[in-house]
Fold each of these.
Amino acid sequence: MKPSVGIRDVAQHAGVSNATVSNVLNRPDVVAPATRQRVLAAIEELGFVRNESARQLRAGRSRVIAYVVLDAANPFFTDVARGVEDAAREAGLALFLCNSASDDGREREYLELLHEQRVEGILITPVDAECAQIAERGTPVVLVDREATDGTRCSVAVDDVLGGELAVTHLIENGHTRIAMVGGPLSIQQVRDRREGAMRALTNAGLPADALTFLETKSLQVAEGRGAGERLVGLPASRRPTAAFCANDLLALGLLQSMTQQGLRVPDDLAVVGYDDIEFAAAAAVPLTSVRQPREQLGRTAAQLLLTENEPDHEHRHVKFQPELVVRASTAVKRRA
Amino acid sequence: MKPSVGIRDVAQHAGVSNATVSNVLNRPDVVAPATRQRVLAAIEELGFVRNESARQLRAGRSRVIAYVVLDAANPFFTDVARGVEDAAREAGLALFLCNSASDDGREREYLELLHEQRVEGILITPVDAECAQIAERGTPVVLVDREATDGTRCSVAVDDVLGGELAVTHLIENGHTRIAMVGGPLSIQQVRDRREGAMRALTNAGLPADALTFLETKSLQVAEGRGAGERLVGLPASRRPTAAFCANDLLALGLLQSMTQQGLRVPDDLAVVGYDDIEFAAAAAVPLTSVRQPREQLGRTAAQLLLTENEPDHEHRHVKFQPELVVRASTAVKRRA
DNA sequence: CTCAGGCGTTAAAACGTTTCAACATCGAGG
DNA sequence: CCTCGATGTTGAAACGTTTTAACGCCTGAG
């Protein structure tokens, strides 16, 4: 609609060459103050807006990075995204946020698109662990919340085995000897790792392996947590666990709701530990004990790592953060009085 | 790093001109099958990826739209975003998701950036209602969850007055005559509208205006809901409301938590109605009655409206959806038995 | 045998910027 | 007076596509 004012219109209006206008835009210090003012005035007057496409085409760079997220509706990922955004912003980069929604078709499409856009780099929490999909093709890629098994790229992750261990050790210290773990599917690396950590906690405490009852769920959603609650209550009282460790907070919230509805009390009848420590965990009716991951820092570090990819002597790094247990009411010890 | 294979490399490799390659990419039907195969093979072999910058520069179009969201961490907006994404995807457009985080500086920056990128259109839930900021400059803009007061652009909103009316009417029908409304700040249009609806419900039922106690909060976050809960319980029993209508679900969840902690029961001691019907509302310890907004449809419609902007005979439209009350346990009527 | 017309392909001109080498201009040092 | 370097500005060549008009070829009709 608009005749689209370009750099040469500005140049003509200011009585200089287009090269000078370009300099004002990109290296303001190199042009004489008087000229600069004149050019800026012309830009203002004509309402000129630089055309990024042309700039990119010529410069080869795009000033944009992307984060392909697994589930935009999960608070965990939105928090990670915030960390990414902050870091990107500090580096003067814009952030393209894409939601694969756990669908590897979508994921592939977005990667293709991003590559066509020639983004500077891609952060991704891939749908499948293999992530063979992510053809390198020259664009730097950093894995988020997944560990790169081969050394072909950087990754930022959290020690999930330790997280599981922390959670279950806490329960054992509170006197529990029959513990349920709720989570799944087992195809998810995180779930496997957290279970492994849980087993390790048992071993450390000298408890037998069958002290842990594993209830597998189909996904990590709230509804699955409710279902697990019903299964749990259905167990014969003699075998019923007195505590549950959930693979994420959504499951834990579902479990909590299920307990309340069935007239059982948390933590008295069942202690509950979640994972992720999302905001809603602290805000639950019974505030949830949870394993906190440094979400924002995860994103921030991933972005920073991505920025180092272009350095000549870059070596791929694998950063691993430590999770931390946040104790709240859902695992409070019974008063002895 | 990579020598970046271009369309002319492909052309040379396939023994055709670059125009033919371009045709294979954009109008496959116009080129002879045999040639097409040869070109496709060359593309595959060389690992060619079209350069969007160049394409855009030439074509003037970008195949990208953007949604500038007010708070990426609020489930309401992530659901709206999903609707936008679905519609965009169907139209073959990519979606640029930007988070203004209620900061009008960020919002401005993003708008500038998007304009430089020459996106096809912008969906935005603006930080301030005035939204004078959003200089038109040729890029179509559609307001989401806000009503455009002037006729300068399209908007998609939900009838918040009706929503408030539905919520409070429901409470009145359940026998409540002292009702609190929790929400704020009043600078937010939505909060004002929902309160207006609440008042209308009182009038319809022949109740006096002071049947509604308004508790203003500083934001719409969970913590504010907790604070409101404490203020509520602090009221003398004779004046204390028996029901509360919260301006959004986050407040309602906070309120719920506060009640539980103070030993009061929902809905027996206090009935609670939320707003937005986010997933966590149904998953709360006491499932929350809430006013549901057609979130995904909101986003979907906004995107579709945006697509019509370029049509020659386009007229700006203001779509307004009806909210719907979803009744759950938090307003269950006391059993009379 | 010629010619019209359809089909598939192509050469070349954009698109709006960045960049590089070259070019003035001017003051200072020899 | 000449040279030199510094400072500021510029012309023109890219960047990798899309697009338009023109082109050559072939077929079938006249």
Amino acid sequence: MSWASEIEGLNRIEPGARATLERDSRRVTVPAGTVVFGPGAQADNLIVVLRGAVRVQHVSESGRQIVLYRVNPGETCIMTTACLMAHEAYSAEGVTETEVDAVMVPRRTFDTMIGLSSDFRTFVFDAYAQRMTDLFLLIEDVAFQRMDIRLAQKLLELSKGAGSVGTTHQQLAAELGTAREVISRLLQEFRRRGLITSARGEIVLNDAAGLRNLAATD
Amino acid sequence: MSWASEIEGLNRIEPGARATLERDSRRVTVPAGTVVFGPGAQADNLIVVLRGAVRVQHVSESGRQIVLYRVNPGETCIMTTACLMAHEAYSAEGVTETEVDAVMVPRRTFDTMIGLSSDFRTFVFDAYAQRMTDLFLLIEDVAFQRMDIRLAQKLLELSKGAGSVGTTHQQLAAELGTAREVISRLLQEFRRRGLITSARGEIVLNDAAGLRNLAATD
DNA sequence: TATGTTTGGTGACTTGGTCACAGACGCGCG
DNA sequence: CGCGCGTCTGTGACCAAGTCACCAAACATA
């Protein structure tokens, strides 16, 4: 029940506010691959992720995709509240990448908490700031960065220190907002240079240092 | 003094909260071309624009620019508070496009107001939501939209119904995050098709309907 | 008028996106 | 097993966009 103590930014919240928060919110477990919010689906809760990750992505009419950011444990999907309040059309969707444990804070409780606790306000504004800067960095990347560098960075990010990444070219294209053919050609070049080896749905990072070196070429 | 009454979202604020807000905040006038915030400049105030416009843009190390959004009258530059709270490096800068009348709400007052007034909270969250959706649309544009369509849209937007736009090719490139040469070539094509005529620093929209038609080609 | 700066134009080249299609692999089913 | 079928990857041709180098016209002002 006492989930708030596990979360950076909420663990030292005022006792009264914390009681309200934990009493009024509901803990859920969602299987992998679930669309937790998206166009048409009105979200009436602030979602705080405890375990797993939610991928937030944009899908254009032409079918092309780009991943905007991920919501990791201890983070909150603040977009839902913002977009709800503004009654704007939701142009992004959230999909669970793994099984996810999360807490749903009802809109009403959220509003009460904001008035009640300055720690909670800080938590919420930090979340906004984090997403904003994520989006700023993404815009810079998409507008100005070469695709080979972005791909090298993404491979290192997705591998998380492990020596390989289990994704298809199509999935990588959706991550970076480009076309599959572009990924195929770049991976071929990486392979030629000995940076990776690859099989169907699997990319092995043979020379992570070399990739890091490429990724650092700003 | 009673500036809050002029602002959509603050005009029906609770009387007590409104008194606090107007007592503690300071009205300023800033000349055109002033950098009101940017890398290194710590902002300690929430800024609400009353008259004029602030352009928020990103400048990359390579010197290329892109305009992220504009803060118009009645709107607030919420980014400053967010980035201040997160203590993140500020990767964007704000420049006044015209002479600007604005209100500076100190950080302390901002925090008090958030706790005091639900109307003020709504105002703030609406502002966040607005910026977020702006950034989402920008990402979609940059990632997926053809440059000729983006340029046509931008010309119509900047002309604001008037028949012409007084900007250089370089400025348009900075708006859209591309290179001057690309703008020059596209404008040449527009000219060839009779959509515009142009002189040094001036573009005349001869066929606004034609441009709108092009811009609508999603 | 002379001179330097800003603005715009152009060609050659590289990178990235689109389209069409083909081969390779995995898997179920007769 | 052999056969289809869907998914994944490779490839060539072409177009769109960004980069680089350079030039010419317009303007500012001494």
